[in-house]
Design goal:
By secondary structure, the chain is mostly helical. It has five helices and no strands.
Length: 140
């Protein structure tokens, strides 16, 4: 378990260091865009790369917090939003990319999609395992 946690932490750190490395560590801070209204929020849901990447990040995060289902989802969701905020801050600090508050919306959508996927995967896995157990014991 320690190795997996180390790999997860290393992934987060290296992922965040990617932003300053991409600009040769020549930082050029810019203010983040904090404007948010319904049309911008809806438009931000077309940011499919953020949705996909943060769905994957949520799923990876659930593997790190193997407590009860409720706390696992809560911690993974929290880590996903923190990572999203750190990515936006890194974009603002480096001056490359778009540091926008509204980008947390597709990040959150990715977390929700990841949560739904993990939930149904766990239910399907439990169903298959219980069915296999009944078949092996002869109660099919």
């Amino acid at each position: 378990m320690r190795g997996r946690r180390f790999a997860y932490a290393a992934f987060v750190v290296v992922g965040l260091l990617y932003f300053p490395a991409r600009v040769g560590f020549h930082l050029s801070p810019r203010a983040c865009q904090v404007a948010l209204d319904v049309p911008l929020a809806l438009h931000s849901l077309t940011n499919y790369p953020h949705i996909i990447l943060f769905t994957i990040f949520f799923v990876m995060s659930t593997r790190q917090f193997l407590a009860s289902t409720g706390s696992t989802f809560l911690l993974a969701g929290l880590m996903t939003l923190v990572m999203g905020a750190l990515v936006e801050a890194a974009e603002g600090i480096t001056g490359r990319g778009n540091c926008r508050l509204r980008d947390l919306i597709p990040d959150s959508a990715g977390a929700v999609i990841g949560a739904v996927g993990v939930y149904f995967w766990a239910k399907a896995r439990t169903f298959v395992l219980s069915r296999r157990e009944r078949t092996v014991s002869g109660h099919a």
